[in-house]
Amino acid sequence: MSKEKYTYLIKQKASELGFMYCGISKADFLEEEAPRLERWLNQHMHGQMHYMENHFDKRLDPRLLVEGAKSVVSLLLNYYPSQEDQQPEEDTYKISKYAYGTDYHFVIKDKLKTLLSYINEEIGEVGGRCFVDSAPVLDKAWAKKSGLGWVGKNSNLITPQVGSFYFIAELIIDLELEYDGPIKDYCGSCTRCLDACPTNAIVEPYVVDGSKCISYFTIELKDQLPQEMNGKFGNWVFGCDICQDVCPWNRFSKPHSEPAFAPHPQLKELKASDWQELTHEVFSQLFKKSAVKRTGYNGLVRNIRFVHGNPEEE
């Protein structure tokens, strides 16, 4: 079989598994990203996310993660919820849309394993690894390289026709394939994401200071929340979608069709007062398999109190 045939089979199977798009790039050193990542780390824009400092070389060269790697297969999985599944705007606290349903790590890992098994069955013995946001892989850089979108001013990957509400995952394999090329940046003169960010985390177009982002504060930061951020979180208590919600490209977002991403039925019904009285039992029931477990019950309660205006109770 030829490279073209292998590529066709992989992309067809990815589509069958529910991935929105599949793009492929050559497994090589990310030359353009190296100085950018180094500068970002030197300016401490990763805050307390110390894991970002680890495996610098591996982040830039997939051949150090998978021996003999030839191709990076980038995949997008839609998580945009339907209108009826979204939380109301008023009298509640909000969690990021990506965390509504089952933790994406489990959902995507299963799909990637199925894809890798299929490659081994149909093409022959292929060495490779699956990656879902939990290893030193610069997923947006690879997705951009393979033509799945451009990295916008809010540092999210944006795709024409669909926007940016999707997960990015990779298969790094030792099989040579047909490679896709990057597409143009269509942000133009738009600055809506910069203008809308309440904590000024987007310090300049295409540069996000992770240590100022609401998602960082509500998920990654384990200390007390800084007083200077008081009143700036709106009603966000886990993650934040503001820079995506205001992006004009997301008017093209269409609801996903992944049953695992459906929210717990009770989520939409929670009023602000219910969140303020959240018990450990209700937390465990609501977020049993959700990414919200990452911040833990105590972390979520801390965030709710901070947004409610009682940070001293933390």
Summarize the topology:
Elements: H1 3-16, E1 21-26, H2 33-42, H3 56-60, E2 71-78, E3 94-95, H4 104-122, E4 128-131, H5 139-145, E5 150-151, E6 157-158, E7 166-173, H6 192-196, E8 202-204, E9 207-208, H7 214-220, E10 236-238, H8 242-245, H9 272-276, H10 280-286, H11 296-308
Parallel strand pairs: 3-10
Antiparallel strand pairs: 1-2, 2-7, 4-7, 5-6, 8-9
Helix pairs in contact: 1-4
Structural overview:
With 314 residues, the chain is of the alpha+beta class. The chain has 2 domains: 3-82 and 98-173, NADH Oxidase, CATH 3.40.109; 192-252 and 263-313, no CATH class. 31% of the residues lie in helices and 13% in strands. It contains 11 helices and 10 strands. It has helices at residues 3-16, 33-42, 56-60, 104-122, 139-145, 192-196, 214-220, 242-245, 272-276, 280-286, 296-308; strands at residues 21-26, 71-78, 94-95, 128-131, 150-151, 157-158, 166-173, 202-204, 207-208, 236-238. The strands form 4 sheets. Strands 1-2-7-4 form a 4-stranded antiparallel β-sheet, sandwiched between helices. Strand 5 (150-151) and strand 6 form a beta hairpin. The longest helix has 19 residues, at 104-122. The chain is globular and about 65 Å long. 39% of the residues are buried. The mean pLDDT is 95. Cob(II)alamin binds at residues 59, 133, 154, 157, 168, 215, 240-241. One of its GO terms (molecular function) is metal ion binding.
